[in-house]
Amino acid sequence: MTGLPQAVLVRRGAYHDSVTLMRVSRALSELPGVEAAMVAMATDLNVSILREMGFDVPESEPGDLLIAVRAKDPDAAVEEAERRLTEVDRPRSGAAEQPPLTTRSAAARGPADLVLVSTPGEYAFFEALDAVEAGLPVMIFSDGVGVAQERRLKELAEARGVLVMGPDCGTAAICGAGLGFANVLTPGPVGVVAASGTGAQQVTCLLDWAGVGVSHVLGVGGRDLSAEVGGLSAARALRMLDEDPATELIVLISKPPAPEVARAVLGQRLRTPVVPALLGPPALAQAGGLTQPGGPAPAWDLTQAGGPAPAGDLTQAVEQALRALGRPVPEWPCWPAPPGTRPAPKRIKGLYSGGTLGAEAALVAGQGEFVDYGDDAYTRGRAHPMIDPTLRVEALARAGERDVVLMDVVLGHGADPDPAATLAPAVAGTPATVVLALIGTEGDPQDLHRQAAAFREAGAAVFTSNAQAARHARSLL
């Protein structure tokens, strides 16, 4: 650690969203004379990261804001951080009237088709409840909503005849309009119901590569097909797509669901064929598992559901959907790693931003240690890893020469505008062998081919299919 002076300030109860804090942190880090800077909420994870960075962190609460700077002139850097945060808080000039302060007051002010809730999890339930009680469908981008609250919202929504997408719904597309993390997709005949954001992105991106578009993507939250929630939103979303004349086939995506819930959801009488893209049966317990709360799910089957058996992975589900539509299955693009000599790897380490992609990779690889950096434990008070690569950059630096690092990079609106700018140097600098799943379409703003070239030049093998990336990583052992 250098001898530059540091400053760490605590602002009591000064909440800012994680994307704003990440941008301010980056701006400070790029100032001349600044060695390290981090502006973040005082969660346990962020406090531990700051201490690992060598900062002396005063007593604080998770609802406090921390501004930590090590620089030639730390006071000036702190002043710049506060100026930028004040600029974010300043109301727009020329506003005609006070904007509504609650969902209820906004719904009363004028007509709306959909409510999008993106607040700290402890407040999201009440805003979503306002939307449902107003008879409006709602997408809850927020995580941190309790499972009992989720169940209550979805029971009320069923009674009101509206759809609750979420909580922790990161991806949706309604009539071609992307919400949350959204890839650029062409319109087409496939509707998607997804208890997984990155799972939906993998499926729709592969469909796009095959020249098949989508009608709608309805995210329902990662817990929807659990026994506690009972698939309430998934069942309603399937019925909604079944009534949509533009939808000819539906793909249902989920991490391992509760078997009885999956059977009930797929056992509905629908006119539109449904392809289950339900990961399982997982061998995660023996494989090391995906590091996230809840642990591995048991093996299961859908033999009583009356429909096709679920595919083994998301790529196979897409291929099943293409065959059902009478479309050819293409070769999924990949970019092999440049030739080189490295020690033969012995183990797989998964560094994932998408929980479903991580679970799929653990299932396909059959061994290794996988971390879901998109889990609530890592995102509370900081931006999602699809936006902020910091934790994965640090993990790449810790990897050893006998490791195969298996990771995802997800493109599209809402994601990092240039992930290779930060992650490719980290890939080039790690002694590990890197295998990367690049999830995106040729229409995405990051330029998929430029991203692939940058990661390949850094030494990674790049795949558009996460399952194929996992198989390749396994083959290297």
Word description of this protein:
The chain is α/β, with parallel strands linked by helices and 477 residues long. Among the domains are: 6-89, Alpha-Beta Plaits, CATH 3.30.70; 102-168, Rossmann fold; 334-475, 3-Layer(aba) Sandwich (Rossmann fold). It contains 17 helices and 19 strands. The strands form five sheets. The chain has a seven-stranded mixed sheet with strand order 13-16-15-17-18-19-14, sandwiched between helices. Residues 83-105 are annotated as: Disordered.
Shape: globular
Helix content: 25-40%
Which stretches are poorly predicted, pLDDT < 50 over at least 5 residues? 282-307
Measured distance between first and last alpha carbons: 36 Å
**CATH uppermost class of the domain at 334-475:** Alpha Beta
Could you report the average pLDDT, rounded to the nearest whole number?
Answer: 88
Strand order of the largest sheet: 13-16-15-17-18-19-14
- The portion of residues forming beta strands comes to 15-25%
Please tell me how large the radius of gyration is.
Answer: 23 Å
For this structure, the CATH topology of the domain at 334-475 is Rossmann fold
